[in-house]
Specification:
With about 325 residues, the chain is α/β, with parallel strands linked by helices. The protein has two domains: about 120 residues, Alpha-Beta Plaits (2-Layer Sandwich); about 190 residues, 3-Layer(aba) Sandwich (Rossmann fold). Strands 10-9-8-11-12-14-13 form a seven-stranded mixed beta sheet, with helices on both faces. Strand 9, helix 6 and strand 10 form a beta-alpha-beta unit. Helix 1 crosses helix 3 and helix 4 runs parallel beside helix 5. The longest helix is centred in the first third of the chain and has 17 residues. The termini are far apart.
């Protein structure tokens, strides 16, 4: 079988939204992401892998997102739709790179296995390590927790800055035996991390049915028994209160979420928000203030910001 390969040169800030668009809206049969930073960072990782950059074919300027479609699809139409989506993301203040799109027809065997070479073990924090499901990895530290993921599911691999900032704050904020709510779970990575770090119960929500399927598979890969999946638009189908609420989604989605937090956050509970572009931060800060919340910790890497939030003190 032949496949249409559509490769988009873009920027990391657009990665998650573009990947989700290709998968859920354009119904790509597969999505591959190549990041320049992955190749540069590998020699510094403690598991000892090295890569000769000169040997990497067509190293991307920032990132390349490639979608694979049935060869009978209208390539020109797909390119127009992708360009429109990138323009939309740019209107939100996100960097979208060169937006150059190339296409070719390939045999499905050209990509179905070869993309795996671009995924490696990622040491996110001292205690959290992400491992692609096909790799064997032995923890280095006695308290190191491994999160096994299937990156081929295209709902978050743990390599994006926003996910790593959220994991960093979960590790700092979570206490043993707490109840956690993960809004927009995607791959389920934040929920899995919360259970491994001691959460007593985790509710993971997403509006997308395919995300629910991806999260379910990853939860199974990690033998997680304390995570319940709930398909929901934000918190509309969620009941009860939680000690920690986590959301790694775009600011445009975080804004309406601020209106629902008070009902579902325990009196001494805390909230983690990630996925925030620095230019979008002021309006989110204002929305949080209006709904009775204050920011206690702010962390930033490049343009991306994550927040630890509490109720305002009387």
């Amino acid at each position: 079988m032949k496949l249409l390969q559509l490769t988009i040169a873009t920027a990391q800030e657009a990665e998650e939204a573009l990947t989700e668009y290709l998968t859920n809206e354009l119904l790509a049969q597969g999505v591959e992401v190549r990041r320049r930073s992955d190749f540069i960072a590998v020699p510094n990782r403690s598991h000892g892998e090295t890569i000769d950059l000169a040997s990497v074919a067509a190293l991307p300027e920032d990132i390349e997102v490639t979608g694979y479609f049935n060869a009978t699809e209208d390539a020109h139409k797909l390119q127009l739709l992708v360009q429109a989506k990138l323009a939309e993301l740019a209107s939100y203040g996100l960097q979208t790179g060169t937006r150059q799109i190339t296409q070719q027809v390939v045999a499905d065997t050209d990509w179905s296995e070869s993309w795996k070479q671009y995924y490696h073990v990622v040491h996110v924090t001292r205690n959290l390590t992400i491992v692609p499901k096909w790799l064997d990895y032995t923890p280095v530290l006695p308290d190191e927790q491994t999160i096994i993921l299937d990156p081929g599911l295209s709902f978050g691999t743990g390599t994006h800055i926003t996910t790593q900032l959220a994991l960093l704050l979960i590790e700092k904020a979570l206490r043993a035996r707490q109840r956690v709510l993960d809004v927009g779970t995607g791959s389920g990575i934040l929920s899995i991390a919360a259970e491994k770090l001691g959460a007593d119960q985790v509710i993971a929500t997403d509006i997308d049915e395919q995300a629910m399927t991806a999260a379910k598979e990853n939860i199974g890969l990690n033998n997680s028994s304390k995570i319940a999946l709930v398909q929901s638009d934000l918190l509309n189908n969620v009941s009860g209160q939680f000690d920690l609420i986590v959301a790694n989604i775009l600011t445009e989605v975080l804004l309406p979420l601020t209106e629902q937090l008070a009902e579902h956050l325990a009196a001494t509970g805390r909230v983690i928000m990630s996925g925030i572009d620095q230019d979008q931060l002021p309006k989110l800060e204002e929305a949080l203030r209006l709904h009775g919340f204050s920011i206690t910790i702010r962390v930033q890497q490049e343009r991306w910001v994550a927040l630890l939030i509490e109720r305002q003190q009387d």
